Amino acid sequence: MPYDDPDPTDPLTLHGVGVETDDDEAMKDMACCFIEEYARLGFDADRIQQIFLGDEFAGPSLARRVLGEGVIRAMIDEEVAKWGPLARGRLETTMQPGGLGLPVLE
């Protein structure tokens, strides 16, 4: 495949996704995806909130400015209660001989 002519059927081609920033529901969906991702990784609520408070990450920062800190915190608390293995005491680790300890989710 030529360098300047990517194959549209190539699954490894980078594709961007537009988000309607005028729609609060679209912004909530985007924020929820970020929150769930970090909650499932084991981040606690305060650590996730720090991601939204800083300006290092464009998506979370935009969501906080559009939705407000109160809405973001409520979403974080809800998702951490649902997915956060550390918040619910469900974090277990398995160790294979000579292996790596990994969290085990439900």
Report on this structure.
With 106 residues, the protein is mostly helical. It has one domain (24-103). It is 48% helix and 4% strand. It contains four helices and two strands, in the order H-H-H-H-E-E. The protein has helices at residues 24-40, 45-53, 58-67, 69-83, and strands at residues 93-94, 102-103. It has a two-stranded antiparallel ribbon. Helix 1 (24-40) crosses helix 4. The longest helix is centred in the N-terminal third of the chain and has 17 residues, at 24-40. It starts with 23 loop residues before the first helix and ends with a strand.
Secondary-structure map with pairings?
Elements: H1 24-40, H2 45-53, H3 58-67, H4 69-83, E1 93-94, E2 102-103
Antiparallel strand pairs: 1-2
Helix pairs in contact: 1-3, 1-4, 2-4, 3-4
Q: What's the N-to-C terminus distance? A: 42 Å
- Order of strands, main sheet, comes to 1-2
What low-confidence regions span 5 or more consecutive residues with pLDDT below 50? 91-95
Mean pLDDT reading: 78
Considering DSSP H and I runs of 4 or more, what fraction of the residues is helical?
40-55%
Largest beta-sheet details:
2 strands, antiparallel
Summary keywords:
106 residues, mainly alpha, two-stranded antiparallel ribbon, 2 strands
Brief rundown of the structure:
With 106 residues, the protein is mainly alpha-helical.
